[in-house]
Write a structure and sequence with these properties.
4-stranded antiparallel beta sheet; 3-stranded antiparallel beta sheet; elongated
């Protein structure tokens, strides 16, 4: 093999020598070496592109949200009180159990009077909802509004709108503790 020192980086010389041995080329001229180097660079470039397109190797945004600079976090509520101003009780004893419900309330529907023995909070996803305690306190919710529910207080919800209301509610309870107790009629 013929090499001119100084015109090829040492790592490329070893790559070209390896390729020459693998292809059976005994007399490697400068032109053949340059051709092999160009081929090696093309192969490495193609492999780099393939690697970048693999999941987990690079972040490529394809969605319409590609122009967003960073995630946006909006705190909906942070409180130690429920919606009618009462201090939230302590969490129940025992093994914690989280329940998340998506509740759909048809237009014109009034829920049964009930109470919650555990802390719960939610977000009205669509429609409107009015929450009323048995002592007359009222909360009106529209889509996007958060609620920290009353605990151990009888109340009901009513959808006075023309479309269904949908609310997602998170209950922080304990195993074998009910999340809702309906008042007997």
């Amino acid at each position: 093999m013929v090499f001119c020192k100084g015109w090829l980086p040492p790592r490329l010389i070893s790559v070209v020598r390896h390729r020459a041995m693998c292809t059976g080329t005994q007399n490697l001229t400068r032109e053949k070496a340059i051709h092999m180097i160009k081929q090696t660079i093309r192969i490495l470039a193609a492999l780099s592109v393939i690697l970048l397109l693999q999941p987990g190797c690079a972040t490529v945004r394809i969605s319409s949200e590609a122009n967003e600079a960073s995630p946006v976090v909006k705190e909906l509520v942070k409180t130690t009180h429920n919606w009618n101003g009462e201090l939230l009780p302590a969490y129940p004893q025992g093994q914690p159990e989280i329940t998340i419900l998506r509740i759909r309330i048809p237009a014109g529907t009034r829920l049964d009077t009930h109470s919650h023995p555990v802390i719960n909070a939610g977000v009205l996803m669509s429609g409107q909802l009015t929450v009323v305690t048995t002592d007359g306190k009222t909360l009106h919710l529209k889509a996007g509004d958060p609620i920290v529910e009353v605990v151990n207080t009888l109340h009901y919800g009513i959808n006075q709108g023309k479309v269904p209301a949908e609310i997602v509610v998170f209950y922080a309870g304990a195993i074998d503790t009910p999340i809702t107790v309906v008042e007997p009629r």
